[in-house]
Amino acid sequence: AATMMPGETPPAPGGTAAAAAACANCGVLQQNINEYVAALIALKQKMIDGDRLLTEYQQKCTDILYFSIKISALRCQVEQMLQKILPLEKCQEELGSLKAELEEKKVCL
What we know:
Blueprint: H1 16-108
């Protein structure tokens, strides 16, 4: 008998029928491999899409946080301005009544 090399398969007994069966099995195996590779590629694409969506989501969360900090700061500024405006409004009222008094005195004079 001829010596076998590692990885070599012995010739199939039964000749062409066995060879045809082996060919059919190879075809099925190749088809399975192709489907498996296609599934892997689809999965990889889904992972890439998922990563992109996650990045967009994180960016939106960062934006929301940034804007809420800005809004809080603006609210504080508005409060401070209101605190300054209230005394000014009082002064304006007092000035109005003083002006009215002066007008009366002017008329009397």
